Every structure is written in C-alpha cells, then in structure tokens.
Structure prediction request, 228 residues.
Amino acid sequence: MALGDQVYAMRDMVGVPGVYEHHGIDCGDEAIIHYYKGGDVPTVTSTPRELFARGGRIFVKSRSLAFLPPIVVQRAKSRLGEQRYDLLTNNCEHFANWCKTGRSDSEQLAGFGLQLDRYNLPELRQLIEGTARDRAPEEAITLFHDALGNIASAHQTLKREYDTARQDIDTWQQVAAAALERDREDLARAALHRKVTAQKKADRLTQQLAELVEVQLTLEQNRQRAAT
Prediction:
C-alpha cells in the first residue's frame, strides 16, 4: 500500500463473512480516509489502518487511469467530515472511486437487482422458504438459479427510479424557494409537499435495495444447502 492507493477490506453482513468490500483511500501515513460507520452517522473520517482492517487483510484496488497520488489524497481530505452517506449514490465505494478517478460509481451495486414486476420481496421470501423445504434438490437448484438471475437483473430499474426521486427532491426544493421569493406561500407549500412525497419514495427504494441484499444472501445460503 502506498500514498493515494484505493484500498478495501472485506466486511461481514448478517453473520456471513466477507460479503462486501469496504473502500477507502490510503494517506500514506498509516491512516485511511473512508466512510466510517462507528458513530451515530456515517462520516468521512481518517482512521488508523488497523481500525479500517478490523483484523483482516487490506487489499489494493488496481486502477489503469487515476489521478496522481497527492491529488487523490487531497480529494479525499476535501470531504473529511462529510455526512451524506447514501447506499445507492454515495456509499464508501462511490467515495473512493471519486477520489481516485473522478467517477462516483459503485461496481458492487451492479450485482444486486430484482425484477419487481414479477416478484415482491415478501412473496420471494415465501418462495425461498417453500423451495428450500418442499422441492427435490435438483428442482430446487434450478429454482434458486432462476431467482438469483432475477436478483441480478433489476438494479438498473431501482437505480433509475431512485435517481428520478432524488432529482424530484431537488427540483421541488428549488420551486419552493422561488415561490417564497415571489411571496407565494401557497405554491411553496405545494412544492414542499411534493418534495416530501419524493423523499418518501427515495427512502422506500433505499430500503428495497437493503432488503434485496438480505434476500440474495438467503438464496445463496439455501442454494448451497440444496446442492449438498
């Protein structure tokens, strides 16, 4: 590891070890800047490497195109204290990628998705439980494969809906501000009402993705049991 490296450590989820990568930027002084979740609110913080690693290994993310190391660290330090963590648009990987390459994206999220027009989450959980108990192993494996394929297919749908909701939030906030400047409190109240509606939709979509991760893990575990 060296100054400006994008690094990551594997994190557990719902008791399953090594499920996802937690990213940060190495400052070259035994410290790593990352979205630290040890407090009440996730915050971009500089922490010792040992705290970042949590007893595990730290890996370096290879990048073919990236800013010079001092610039990477400068970009990371410019966001110290930030508390705008968002699973869909501003998670630890978004942050580290932005520092390293200027692109705020998350490759890990592309692995999660669900065809929500075919399944809702409670029904999918019932399918999982029924399949695990009632199906022959060969048939169960096929059904698990199909369900995992569904999970891998709809992240883009969720993300588009989420992005639209976030844009609506910003738009209605601007409309409300403009209305107040014109002393139109009635229009401002209507705009703020629409903003609240968009915020609720964004919160719901965020929760759907979090539940989706849990569903995928359950499917993977049950698939492995069915195969043995």
